[in-house]
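fyi for ur records
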Amino acid sequence: MSEAFLQDPWVILILLGNYAFMILLFFIQRRLGKKNFRYDERYYQVNNRAKGRTWDIMLVVMLVAWPIIIMFDGISFSFFLITVLYILHCVIYGICAAYYNSKEE
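which gave:
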């Protein structure tokens, strides 16, 4: 574990509280949106296109981050973490593409 984490382990509690707060906000926003009929076909079309573009941009960001991590941090934990995230990104993309291609038929 890192030295910074060992000095301030309570930061994890703040992160977990943050996640719980975001989940609560998600459900509140979802309930209000359903009452106001915000989730129509256009909403799903726009959000699906935005999510697809976000995956494309994230791929470029990870490929740019790779050499930066090697230059400043060397081949260490952060390099392997970004590598695992890249592989996970590609695997998830492949699974989703196969799933939605099979639904089209």
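The radius of gyration is 19 Å. thats all i got for now
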